[in-house]
Amino acid sequence: MLNEELIIDLYRVGAIKFGRFKLTSGIESPFYIDLRLAITYPGIYKRLVKLMAESLSAFNIDVVTGIETASIPWASMIAYELNKGIVYVRKEVKEHGTAKLIEGDLKTGMRVAVIDDVITTGNSIIRAIRIVRDHGGDVVVAAVFIDREQGGLNAIRREGINAFALFSVIDMIDVLVNNGLVSNELRNSVIEYLVKNRVSTGA
Ligand SMILES: O=P(O)(O)OC[C@H]1O[C@H](OP(=O)(O)OP(=O)(O)O)[C@H](O)[C@@H]1O
Ligand SMILES: O=C(O)c1cc(=O)[nH]c(=O)[nH]1
């Protein structure tokens, strides 16, 4: 299966790691998805971008929104594939030059897809959605490549926005187990962690 090969390729370049990691939300995690590595490999990023562009084509968007930093190259490539423009949301207002929080020419009423690489709590995307809305954008969908299955997609849906992921982490780990790359014990420890670390509030 093509997606199975893609998941194995992601693992081989180190985009799926096991160990001890601190997440942006402060949560500790026994695994980390590092899609920042995947942007260096055309053979990998082209497949991911194509899958995402196909999934977004139903939403009739005008512009793709990236989030500083990891999502910006993805948003750019997806926008290119869809022949749409890109805007991106900064982590902080720039304190010189134009002092903006959103870069690009977002116009009132534009139909926006907000893109991120990975979702945990959903807080990064929800913040971006609110900023885009405050600037007049009509966010019609939020999309990520990988859902860590910790409640982030539902947190976005509670904001009244469609949200989807191309892959969920357990499906990915199952592919790795079935191909002898990861042990069943490791898979079970990830599931145990996920059950204990679901976030219900979001933002
Ligand atoms: O769903 P959340 O709990 O918000 O977590 C997911 C976010 O965390 C990571 O970004 P990070 O804050 O590490 O910044 P970066 O993109 O600059 O690497 C990732 O790229 C997502 O944006
Ligand atoms: O929640 C995060 O900060 C996070 C988790 C993850 O697996 N990958 C990532 O880039 N960020």
TrEMBL record:
Signal peptide: none
Pathway it works in: Pyrimidine metabolism; UMP biosynthesis via de novo pathway; UMP from orotate: step 1/2
EC numbers for this chain: 2.4.2.10
Binding positions for 5-phospho-alpha-D-ribose 1-diphosphate per the UniProt entry: R90, K91, K94, H96, D116, D117, V118, I119, T120, T121, G122, N123, S124
Keyword check for Zinc-finger: no
Location of the Phosphoribosyltransferase domain: 43-152
One Gene Ontology biological process: pyrimidine nucleobase biosynthetic process
Chain residues that bind orotate: T120, R148
Glycosyltransferase is among the record's keywords: yes
Molecular function, one GO term: orotate phosphoribosyltransferase activity
Swiss-Prot/TrEMBL keywords: Glycosyltransferase, Magnesium, Pyrimidine biosynthesis, Transferase
Reaction catalysis annotation: orotidine 5'-phosphate + diphosphate = orotate + 5-phospho-alpha-D-ribose 1-diphosphate
Reported function: Catalyzes the transfer of a ribosyl phosphate group from 5-phosphoribose 1-diphosphate to orotate, leading to the formation of orotidine monophosphate (OMP).
HAMAP family linked: PyrE
Protein name, per record: Orotate phosphoribosyltransferase
Lineage: Archaea, Thermoproteota, Thermoprotei, Thermoproteales, Thermoproteaceae
Gene from which the chain derives: pyrE
